[in-house]
Amino acid sequence: xxxxxxxxxxxxxxxxxxxxxxxxxxxxxxxxxxxxxxxxxxxxxxxxxxxxxxxxxxxxxxxxxxxxxxxxxxxxxxxxxxxxxxxxxxxxxxxxxxxxxxxxxxxxxxxxxxxxxxxxxxxxxxxxxxxxxxxxxxxxxxxxxxxxxxxxxxxxxxxxxxxxxxxxxxxxxxxxxxxxxxxxxxxxxxxxxxxxxxxxxxxxxxxxxxxxxxxxxxxxxxxxxxxxxxxxxxxxxxxxxxxxxxxxxxxxxxxxxxxxxxxxxxxxxxxxxxxxxxxxxxxxxxxxxxxxxxxxxxxxxxxxxxxxxxxxxxxxxxxxxxxxxxxxxxxxxxxxxxxxxxxxxxxxxxxxxxxxxxxxxxxxxxxxxxxxxxxxxxxxxxxxxxxxxxxxxxxx
Length: 396
What we know:
13 helices; 11-stranded mixed beta sheet; alpha/beta; AS_sf; Amidase signature (AS) enzymes; single chain; about 400 residues
């Protein structure tokens, strides 16, 4: 298996290290025999954690694996590779200037999305059954959408983030990728055990206006038809929510990596240096204003989720852009910068810490459908996701 993984990575650039298995007793547990890829910003016992950077988070090998990895291994899963990412999770394309470009399995000339792109590609190719990622503004859901796999982000704090190299501490979520919703539900039972069995679930389609192109809107409408969604709700806050979230990301990222920036500035990639430096320059008043807006948005979205249980919308504005494409198409002939606007539809829900899942919806190139629920509704979300998958089918 190791040789096959290395050959696959040589073509798609989605794996950093392939681990040769050590002799062991047959695994037991609910995930016995599952192979796992782990994003490079999650600690693995005995290995130095780099988070896609030439500068290690800590030069010493980790004494223990990230908490999520430990739980998966106790359940019988086996880690076989570390996966590619944007340096320090700064980005939406897994274009890391220190590493080979990570390529989309549906079209290698297109981005896999990011910053957890390597994990999405590993699952899409069948190299692993499960891959862990992290999501700060959409970094699980965006690559899941563009690579045609299931990408699940539980609510903030629902998965223990111990052993994670931080990007923005109040926004970072541990999430995962699978081929099927049933597999995602099995992982949820291991990482977020509970008995929140869902009852009837009310769904509503979100009016995304011109924040999605024809492919994104078609993906949403396929889901609306498949789920029999009748209600539609307005959400006029996408851009301002993303802007506020990026302010918080910049400030908290600069705080987390300030020492690295001071000591190893020239070893960091240009984009990361720029982002961290900009975060240091953000006025404190702007950070406070962004946090106040967060509370306002939480009340607004709470009102929406008072009358419905699950919001249905595209995960990304459209399908994967080409690697050399700096602008992406939106609706009504509009364009926007590829970054950060690949995350314009996902950032608000990381900002609020709400659980969300991206489910493949068909199409010539993948575009996912995003389902968002209120805090603590992970299993209700996966119930709706399973209905959608049953109607549309699992991608080949």
